[in-house]
Amino acid sequence: MSTFAGSKGARGSLQRRKALNTALLLIFLLYSFLPLFYLIVSSTKSNANLFSSFGLWFASSFDLLSNLHKVFTFNGGIYLRWLLNTAYYSVISAVGATFLATMAGYVFAKFHFRGRTLLFALILGAIMIPQTALAIPLYLLLSKIGLVNTPFAVILPSLVFPFGVYLMRVYAEQSVPDELLEAARIDGAGEFRIFFRVVLRILAPGFVTVLLFSFVFTWNNYFLPLIVLNDPRLYTITVGLAAWNSQASAAGGGSQALFPLVITGGLVGIIPIIAAFLFLQRYWQGGLTFGSLK
Amino acid sequence: MASQISSPAEERSESSGKRFAPRGKGRHRILQAGIPYLFLLPFMLVFLVFLILPLFYALGISLFETRLATGTAFAGLQNYAHALGDSNFWDGVRRMVIFGIFQVPIMLGLALVFALVLDGGTVWLRNLFRLGFYLPYAVPSVVAALIWGYLYGPSFGPFTQLAHTFSLPAPNFLSDSLMLPSIANIVTWEFTGYNMIIMYAALQSIPSELNDAAAVDGARGWQIALHVKIPMIRSAILLTIIFSIIGTLQLFNEPQIMQAIAPQVIGDHYTPNLYAYTLAFTNQQYNYSAAISFVLGAVVVVFSYTFMLLANRGELRR
């Protein structure tokens, strides 16, 4: 990349630099899209074509519909259950986690109270804990109170979203004016009324950001549901697909017919998440500015 | 986030101390003082029950041992002594350190270059790149590992097919020697865009006057990037490094999926987390597994902390 800036050639050099940069980034874009393209192409192939046709292009016959039919009917239509389970766990967890994180983040941003620094440090420190350090005792504790193998085993632990508290604190610090709170207090409004009537409305963009992140986190989570759910009818998509893959990979013979199911099931399973990211672009792109703050 | 803030909200209060001064006196004052805690209560409740409690429970059971003959008995630090000398565990840690030494700089280096290029504006199709690079992060790591596993695959992977077409020896991505780079590639694919967005967002919040001033002083694009922009987003870069160190040492999903595809290559202690998982759920050695998890937690803290120290010392020297 040239740092030369001749006054006459400046315009041409800028164009050249743009072309060079664009080319560089296009290579990586190709890399980013390659596996997704492969997933889409493969989801249109029968099991036989998966093995006999070239992986990165379509086969002569188009079997997407038949694959979809297989995915949704295999084993009594268990895939649809996984899809609904995942949606159910993710929506409840996300709404709950975001509410708790918003209340906590707002308080950390706008109130001064004893233990504030310590509590916040504790919450941030939680991000460093290895997932196994938590998941194994969580499993043992949940099994003691009979919650293992129930939706609660996935939902309740997913309500804890320390990262969301951090994001909401930063967002509330930036967006909720102290004068507004003072004015509402002088008008005699109670703190909860202020929060639900005034603050929540201001925090709405931050709320959506945390909602999106916690939703995606639960939707994509693998370790927790893998451990606390044994009943295939309660599985999430990630655990179910991994189980199908194990079956398909384990035996060389007849189980290979499961590969199109894993591929097509994987494609269907990521569509809601990709749609959420596409539609809520301005939230996640803005929501990550926290890194710039001390 | 800055872009979403409406103008009246721009006044940021600098000190955190004087924000909330309870008015009134007596009873009212006491009630007011309790309000922050009431707001915190729901979060702290789930935080304590589903995070702190399991942590202490794990700490507790890690001090016991279960034998078929004698049942569960207090074992003191015996599990920890065992863990410190467990070559299976350290084997995994060493593998992840090697993994991280190569994978993290490549991933974050790419992320930084892309973020700088997108922020600098000397590129076409900016929105497409921003979105396209981030897209892999939306894909669950399980599905990412499955897709790449099939792409690598010797039976119907396109790379093998291409090699056969040109009568070349097919690279065996799932072999003993190539498995680690193959997993590193999956992780790079998943998280480069995510890290890029963190850095890009930080770059976007640098006041434009600063870049303008540097440009007036005669600094060129890459000089501005090196001497103005990168120092300005230092905290964001440090954050991505710390997150990457934590994520690397805790790697589980990708190797666990690859284990199903290549069981002869990925053993039960390929990564420390995989080892802890196998100990707990295959061998039912919950006590020992809990101890392993804590030692891993300590390793994570040591690495993160050492890195922070080094980074801060480098900063002081300048």
Question: How are the SSEs ordered, and which strands pair?
Answer:
The complex is a heterodimer of chains A (294) and B (318).
Chain A: H1 10-42, H2 47-52, H3 64-110, H4 116-125, H5 131-144, H6 151-158, H7 162-175, H8 178-186, H9 191-202, H10 204-220, H11 223-228, H12 237-250, H13 259-279, H14 281-287
Helix pairs in contact in A: 1-13, 3-6, 3-7, 3-10, 3-13, 7-10, 10-14, 12-13
Chain B: H1 27-61, E1 64-67, E2 71-74, H2 78-84, H3 87-120, H4 126-138, H5 141-152, H6 158-165, H7 179-204, H8 208-216, H9 221-232, H10 234-249, H11 253-261, H12 272-281, H13 286-317
Antiparallel strand pairs in B: 1-2
Summarize the structure.
The complex is a heterodimer of chains A (294) and B (318). With 294 residues, chain A is mainly alpha-helical.
Describe the structure.
The complex is a heterodimer of chains A (294) and B (318). Chain A is globular. Chain A is mostly helical and 294 residues long. Chain A has helices at 10-42, 47-52, 64-110, 116-125, 131-144, 151-158, 162-175, 178-186, 191-202, 204-220, 223-228, 237-250, 259-279, 281-287. In chain A, helix 10 (204-220) packs across helix 14 and helix 12 runs antiparallel to helix 13 (259-279). The longest helix of chain A is centred in the N-terminal third of the chain and has 47 residues, at 64-110. Chain B has 2 domains: 27-54, no CATH class; 84-145 and 182-317, MetI-like (MetI-like fold). The radius of gyration of chain B is 25 Å and the shape is globular. Chain B starts with 26 loop residues before the first helix and ends with a helix. The model of chain B is unreliable at 1-24 (pLDDT under 50).
